[in-house]
Amino acid sequence: MPTPAPLLRRNTANPRYFADPTGRAVFLTGSHTWNNLLDKGPGNPPPPFDWDFYLDFLEKHNHNCIRLWSGQMLTPCDNPGGGVSQLPWRRTGPGEAIDGGPRFDLTAFDPAYFDRLRHRVGTAGERGIYVDVMLFEGWCATVGHAPMECHAFAGDNNINGVDILGSPREKVYARWVTLDDAEVVRLQELYVREVVRAVNAFDNVLYEIANEPSGLSHGWQEHFVDFIRACEAELGKVHPIGVPGGMKTHNRRMFASGADWVSPDIQAVDDDRREDYRKGTVTWGEPDYDRGDKVVVLDTDHLWGLGGSTAWAWKSFCRGYNVFYMDPARDFPGAFFKGTAQWSNEPNLDLRREMGVIRSYAERVDLNRTLPRNDLCSTGYCLAQPGRACIAFQPEAGPFTVTVEPGRYAMEWHFVDTGDTAAAAPADLPGGTAAFEAPSAEAAALMLLRL
Questions:
Q1: Which of 28-32, 40-44, 93-97, 235-239 has the lowest mean pLDDT?
Q2: What per-residue confidence (pLDDT) applies to 167?
Q3: Residue 27 burial class via C-beta count within 10 angstroms: exposed 0-12, middle 13-18, buried 19 and up
Q4: Same domain for 344 and 405
Q5: Same domain assignment for residues 337 and 400
Q6: What total of structural domains would you count in the chain?
Q7: Contact 416, 362 (CB under 8 A)
Q8: Of 70, 356, 418, 431, which sits with the fewest C-beta atoms within 10 Å of its C-beta?
Q9: Partners of residue 446 on adjacent β-strands
Q10: What range defines the domain where residue 381 resides?
């Protein structure tokens, strides 16, 4: 039986990761997909998402964290002809919404939505999987081409007298992900409080304020970081709260946030590296505002949409980051297919596999003391606790060096393209710069453990 996921807290020993109640650092990784909470897709009602299949998939791949996607649209953001199963509010009327159903009362909550939320968080936790509970969808209101007339907070769809469409239309985000409209914020607070009440009792919860909101949303996000903390102070358990990047969110302000974790975006990348970055061939790097004092989740959703490579995952891990994959999930029952060419990618099966492998390596070392030490490896990708453990990544075939303390070490190679692992004979290393070369001509990770 899997071990239930324990409550996470801030990690004073190594703030790049959360810690469980024993103080052990926890590396987070997992595949997430758009309709893992709300059914979305063609037709109305859309086909149901197979949650049990998804949990089996996560467990099979050794993944331990997902984003649980929320939404406030009556139709998928970029698929206007499709349907969404249900939203958090009751459809009481009077009057019809744009989809022909009764209009929403944004002060009355649909028990079925919150029953599903509790069930999905609870069953994931039983399998040792953490759930990042997304509160708001910000992308739809920011990109400008989503059918915002289908939003629950659009005036034609609710009985509460709020309308985020406003005028001009392109400024819709100012009423949805800022503090500009006090009544919208009040109704958002009612919803957030209901979510917190629904899931506070579960240990495996993280919160995410919004998916890819506008770069002007920082004050609004900070307001809800503080609001969630106030709600949880009344209920007992305290869970980590995160703010994401995306849509030109300013990463420097994000790292200065009072949130417990952040998920940066591609805007931090220099223009001359951007194309390689979109291909998933380089990691996010270490800008001066990432001081190593906050949990960083690199999520392909914010970096390039769909994509990413096994090398990207290993490089990111060796730089001290947690890694998430925005999975198109085309092989899932009830998967939601985005209709544009941008989303035509097939799932990256190797990346799915390697994320779970990386987690297994993370659990074999003490991540409270095994830190990013790029200076100790000629490739620039290295986690090390000198004299005890080292995980080095060589993205291309060929020799490389690692600086080690003298001693006898167990050695293991992992080949990230094929997923194969091979133990090598223990080595007596004299200390200083030691040369290594993988026995196979492919990208490889080397683990050294002091005997």
A1: 40-44
A2: 55
A3: buried
A4: no
A5: no
A6: 2
A7: no
A8: 431
A9: 392, 413
A10: 373-450
Spatial separation of the C-alpha atoms in residues 274 and 281, rounded to whole Å: 10
Are 45 and 160 found together in one domain? yes
- C-alpha 410/C-alpha 1 separation (Å) is 30
Measured CA angle at 359 (ends 356, 360), to 5 deg = 90
The encoded tokens of residue 351 equal 């990346």
3-state secondary structure 141-183: HHCCCCCHHHECCCHHHECCCCCCCCCCHHHCHHHHCCCCCHH
DSSP classification of residue 34? T
Residues 256 and 311 in one domain: yes
Triad 51, 133, 363: Cα angle to 5°: 80
Q: How confident is the model at residue 245 (pLDDT cuts 50, 70, 90)?
A: confident
**CATH number of the domain to which 425 belongs:** 2.60.120
Q: Which two tokens stand for residue 390?
A: 């080292």
Beta carbons of 43 and 82 less than 8 angstroms apart: yes
Please indicate, yes or no, whether residues 215 and 179 belong to a single structural domain of this protein: yes
Does any domain span residue 144? Answer: yes
Q: What are phi and psi of 278, to 5 degrees?
A: -65, -30
Residue 158: strand pairing partners:
104
Q: Residue 8 domain-assigned?
A: no
Please classify residue 398 by burial: count the beta carbons closer than 10 Å to its beta carbon, then call 0-12 exposed, 13-18 middle and 19+ buried. Answer: exposed
Count other Cβ atoms within 10 Å, centred on residue 438. Answer: 20
Q: Is 6 exposed, middle or buried (0-12, 13-18, 19+ CB in 10 A)?
A: middle
Q: Are 163 and 101 in contact (CB under 8 A)?
A: no
Q: Is the pLDDT of residue 71 over 60?
A: yes
Based on the fold, state whether residues 43 and 163 are members of the same structural domain: yes
pLDDT (0 to 100) of residue 5: 95
Query: What are residue 27's phi and psi, to 5 degrees?
Result: -85, 130
Cβ-based neighbour number of residue 439 at 10 Å: 9
| d(C-alpha 422, C-alpha 100), whole Å | 60
